[in-house]
Amino acid sequence: MIYFDNASTTKMSEQVMDYMCEFMKKNFANPSSLHSMGFEAEKEITKARKIVASAINADPEEIYFTSGGTEANNTAILGVAEAYRRRGKRVITMNIEHPSVTDSYKELERRGFEVITLAVDEKGYIDIDELENTVNEDTILVSIMYVNNEVGTIQDIEKIYKTIKGKNPNCVFHTDCVQAFCKHPVNCKFADIITLSGHKICSAKGTGAMYVKKGIRVNNLHFGGSQEKGLRPGTENTYGIAALGKAVEISVENMDLNYAKVLEVKNALMKAADKLEDVYVNGDSEKGSPYILNMSFKDVKGEVLLHALENEEIYVATGSACSSRIKEKKKIVDNMTEGRGANAVRFSFSCENTVEEAERVVESLLKNVPLLRRFVPR
Amino acid sequence: MRNVLLVKYGELAIRGKNRYLVENRLIKTIIKRLNNYPGYRVYKEQGRILVVNEEGEFDYDTVIPIVSNILGIVGLCPGTEFEDRSIESLRKHALMHFKEHFPNGGVTFKVITRRSDKKYPMTGNEISADVGGYILHNIDDLKVDVHDPEIKLMIELRNNVYVYSKVIKGPGGLPYGSGGKATVLLSGGIDSPVSAFLVAKRGVEIEAVYFDSPPYTSERAKQKVMDLAERISAFTGSIKLHIVPFTQTQLCIYEHTPPEKMTVFLKRAMLKAAEKIAVKNKSYALVTGDSIGQVASQTMEAIYAIDSAVAMPVLRPLCAMDKQDIVDIATDIGTFDISVRPYEDCCTVFVAKHPETKPKKSIIESMESKIEELDRLIEEAVENSEIIEF
């Protein structure tokens, strides 16, 4: 089995699994309970919070655990917009965000906000000058993701942050760092709110976190207890949070090593584009994230190639797992280069992948793509 | 006196000598469905079927949902059964029933009496008038409305006497399996499951065929068809689904036919494969979800060019229906939500951008006869098909 769909989710690492199981066996208590067992559980959360905070140079006070990236994005966008709605009505995003961001902005539009969606260029970059012209005094929120989940384009977050603050220091900048976290350096200095997720870094599903800079107000979407300072009420997912802490600890330690490793895998796989005709690398083929390689194979439907590869136990994606069940003709890739979306396949890597695997996938592509091209839609 | 469920089955009561066969089939199905519920017995009672619980209270909330989707049942009437047919007894039981179901009055009503016992000293109308007057006298705030009443209180004098006021609609039609067998081509779309249901509703036992084309169609598309088959089995009791691996046949057709004609060849090949399965399972007809003019392969010309592929009759129960009417039935029988799941059901790779709407049968047939390996591939596909029973 070759699993090249790590941007959808990763296999939990043995170490994290062991750690989580140990903790599950040891402590099932509610961290809000006043007895010592509860206190022990609380300590585990405190520990994880410290680890996550230090991974992005934040203060533990600024980390809020959530059920994952989607919840963090929803809370950030809807929560900030509602908290600052008296200050202004303009909110800005771009056209290659994750559905949990895009759909939150659609909700803001329904609630009467003026939503501006910036279009990216053919490599997936926003035009920072255009952003500068769009941010005005009325602008309360901007969401631009760091590493794109489908093509791996890396936005210049530092410049974006400075540009926004230069135009309007009160405007909140939110960035979805789900695909960047523990893979690329994420620094909380250049964002007001950051979305993080656990299951993309070999931790458990259903865990994530949100960084909220001190002083930034976010209205809560859920109501209940005072867990996570009321921003995310509900008994904490102690097991998941413990796993998240462990996974972050391991990933941060190995970040550079993993980066170099997946880069080799990506480069090996990219050779398919040289050996086959009419293959395009979507996004920025040179400066994109090494964790993601998105290629369009002319005349081959992405999903058909996916199923053909699956026959050889090679698992890939056609796009974001969160959008794969949406019956829309236009895909994220089409927002960069019109017409390539239907033929796009995303290969995404983890530190467990090897160059040999990439070579095997290249072989399989060399075999399958010409075969499938015999049967082109006419 | 006891609580019972009267089952009305309309149409089959008018059948001649075969009537008892059809009735027995229906009774057998009801017995089978109630198998796991102790105490329930099913009897014939002069043009009705009677469900009773001989060991305890009749649990309508449990039994009605189980029985109400059985094909052939027109209506279910929860009511009371008693023996004493004196007019005093009729009055008493009718009033009791009324008080139990409409304790606060505030409704318009009418009493209707059916009497198969022609020796009874009063006519149906006389009984209705008498009992109606008695109820009116004993419950406040009631009005009689003989033309359009809110409540029709029914009294039926058969071997015993039955009083009821509510009719829960059943699917109607004829009991499943009372009218031969057919093989349905199930695609995963909205139409074919409706076709399957309508044919089954006419008493015809059905088996289903699905053409699987990996990697052009996905596992999830196949799962969708399996879920559709399972949903249909809620009405039929069970169903066999044949999954035919069709990729090689499709590729062969792709290579040997012009794009605008491909769909016609493809559908002919599917009918041929389905016919082979149908012959084996002793079907008398094939069934498709075609609706005239819906897409290029469903024009009159295309239907003509496609049908000659097989000798078996091809039934198209939806041929004259509008899409919305089909969607309404699909929603009713619970297949719509499954059908609209966003997975490719047929391989869109193989659908031409501009398929021919008026294919010529003679041209198609002569072209088809020149594709040498086609028959062999179809034969192989059928041989390698997988059968799943729901």
Write a short abstract of this structure.
By secondary structure, chain A is an alpha/beta fold. Chain A folds into 2 domains: 2-10 and 255-373, Aspartate Aminotransferase, domain 1 (Alpha-Beta Complex), CATH 3.90.1150.10; 14-253, Type I PLP-dependent aspartate aminotransferase-like (Major domain) (Aspartate Aminotransferase, domain 2, 3-Layer(aba) Sandwich).
Task: Write a structural description.
Chain A is an alpha/beta fold. Chain A has two domains: 2-10 and 255-373, Aspartate Aminotransferase, domain 1; 14-253, 3-Layer(aba) Sandwich (Aspartate Aminotransferase, domain 2), CATH 3.40.640. Chain A has helices spanning 14-26, 36-55, 69-83, 99-110, 128-134, 157-167, 238-253, 255-275, 302-310, 355-373; strands at residues 2-3, 63-66, 90-94, 114-118, 139-143, 172-176, 193-197, 208-212, 279-282, 292-297, 314-315, 344-348. A seven-stranded mixed sheet of chain A has the order 2-8-7-6-5-3-4, sandwiched between helices. A three-stranded antiparallel sheet of chain A has the order 9-10-12. A two-stranded parallel ribbon of chain A has the order 1-11. In chain A, helix 1 packs antiparallel against helix 7 and helix 8 packs parallel to helix 10 (355-373). Chain A is globular and about 65 Å long. In chain A, 49% of the residues are buried. By secondary structure, chain B is of the alpha/beta class. Chain B folds into two domains: 2-169, VC0802-like (2-Layer Sandwich); 181-389, HUPs (Rossmann fold). In chain B, 39% of the residues lie in helices and 21% in strands. Chain B has helices spanning 19-33, 60-67, 87-101, 124-138, 191-201, 219-236, 247-256, 262-280, 300-307, 323-333, 336-339, 361-369, 374-383, and strands at residues 2-8, 40-45, 48-53, 75-82, 107-115, 142-144, 151-157, 161-164, 168-169, 181-185, 205-212, 240-245, 285-287, 314-315, 386-389. In chain B, the strands form two sheets. In chain B, strands 1, 2, 3, 4, 5, 6, 7, 8 and 9 form a nine-stranded mixed sheet that branches. Chain B has a six-stranded mixed sheet with strand order 14-13-10-11-12-15, with helices on both faces. In chain B, strand 10, helix 5 (191-201) and strand 11 (205-212) form a beta-alpha-beta unit. The longest helix of chain B is centred in the C-terminal third of the chain and has 19 residues, at 262-280. Chain B is elongated. The mean pLDDT of chain B is 88. Classes of the chains: A alpha/beta (378), B alpha/beta (390).
